[in-house]
Amino acid sequence: MTIHKRQLFFSLRLKFLLVFTLFIVAPILLMLYLYFIQSDKIFMRQMTDTQTQVLKRVTDRADDMLNRTLNVSNLLTNDYDVLQLLRSSGQSDLDDYPTYQRVIGLQNKMDNLISYILDNHAIVAVYGFNGSMYATNQDEQILKVMPDYVKQAKDKNGAPAWDVNPSLKVKGLEGNQEGGFITMVRLIKGETTKGYGLVFIAFPIKEMFLVSNGLEEDSPAQFLISDNSRLLWGRNELWNKTESGDEASTFAQTLKATGWQLRWIPMQEQWVQQLKNVRTATTWSVIVVFACFLCIYVLFTLRLMKPIRSLVHAMGKAASGNFEKPALAGGNDEIGLLNHHFNRMLSSLKEMVTTLREEQQLKEEARFHALQAQISPHFLFNALNSIKWLALFSGAKNVGDMITSLGIMLSYSMKQENEVVTLRDELDFIHHYFSLQKIRFNDNIELSIHVDESLLSACMLKFTLQPIVENSIIHGNRTPLSIHIAAYQVDDLLFVTITDNGQGLSERKLAAGATKESDPIRQGKYSGIGLENVQSRIRMHFGEPYGLFMRNGMDAGAETVIKLPWNRMEDSA
């Protein structure tokens, strides 16, 4: 009984209830108490803070757009192609191909730059004093206002000249230019003092402040004031009312890019009155709704704990090694997703354990076969048999050569300290191996090797070439038999090819290889280490994309291609 009470005291349901009471119920009751005592004061302070934050966000947005506009003007005024176009005689030079290319390039740049300013709602134009103009919007209104801005650009002598044009109307931006445009012009000087032309950039002021010029009586009023206290944008009657002192609550922020001032009149009297009218009804509504939600919360908490307990039980079983999927609750909520991911985790763990077990088994088998079958048993028998007969009938120098080759091969095969050798080592081993095979087949087989000296230091696994050469000898079924070994490098890959002039691959083997292109070395009976064992060792050591690939030769016989990563022995060390 004591344990049950202790579990109940520390249960998650009780913790939920305590947290709900301490961090939700108590703060709400405290806020209601403060609301009844100082509701007007709190409301005014919060409203002031909110309005200040809103104005700050609007100002930050405006400053960001103005800075982007300034960056665009910097790019255009310092652009070499723009200077070259403005130095020319005008649009008549478009017949010149380099000039035409510059015009096309400038048009593409300006099209990209307007999306940087305001998603194609802006206007960018380059106006030359030689009469040329290049603009993202070809409306004639833009050309008409250009002379009005020449003086502004020249007065600033290369600095940006900002202004607001409330009367500019441009085709293609209907419904988005209410209140006019914010404009910026800048002289393109180059190496002269008078300049070659100017950059003109304009965008709707509505997009910068996200509010129209026509404001309702109970809406916040915005005004844009120049650095000399001139009204640039806003309703004149509201501005006059503000200047006369009738509106005391005014918020102001300065635009850093232009030095202009943005003023905001919240007109809060109407909001305070509305607050007083709904205060009582809202208070009682909050109390009733709060009580209902408290009951719902308790029921929901009880229901929430059931799948959590089931999940905890399933986790305990998984910790003990049981990876079978439990019957957990589904759904699209967080608990359902948690159960779903837990089931996926169990599947992944089960698959991972199985994969690790299989990989460990394959590694042990590969290690065992590498130790057990380093040289083909039937090859040793045939080699010793050849030595016996040669010793009986000749007693010549060939016996010593065969024994020497056999000794070198046995020494090579018994070196277990390193599985990775160089291509030179493998080719030396093949030379000694083939010298013995030539005696066995009465010199009816020939071996030619053409490998560049720079490739001989490439890394590969020991006993990679011998099973392939042996396979060509056994299954070539043709005398005289010629085997050719070559190697080449492509980027970071090494390819070693072993071709013969034998009978080639049978149709049955080609069909079997075509049905499983990712693992083509699963055909026929091979002696020694075996091609399938070589394939497994290569992929286990270097990865799945590498290995052996067999096909019929161009003229006759079979061709085996070994695909390995290019890596020199000194690099790997």
Automatic annotation (TrEMBL):
Domain HAMP as annotated: residue spans: 302-354
Transmembrane spans: 12-36, 284-305
Lineage: Bacteria, Bacillati, Bacillota, Bacilli, Bacillales
InterPro entries reported in the protein's UniProt record: Bact_2-comp_sensor_kinase (IPR050640), HAMP_dom (IPR003660), HATPase_C_sf (IPR036890), HATPase_dom (IPR003594), Sig_transdc_His_kin_internal (IPR010559)
Protein name: Histidine kinase
Compartments, record wording: Cell membrane
Example of a GO MF term: kinase activity
UniProt keyword list: Cell membrane, Kinase, Membrane, Phosphoprotein, Transferase, Transmembrane, Transmembrane helix
Species for this entry: Paenibacillus alba
Membrane topology: Multi-pass membrane protein
Domain of life: Bacteria
One Pfam family it belongs to: His_kinase
Annotated Gene3D superfamilies: 6.10.340.10, Histidine kinase-like ATPase, C-terminal domain (3.30.565.10)
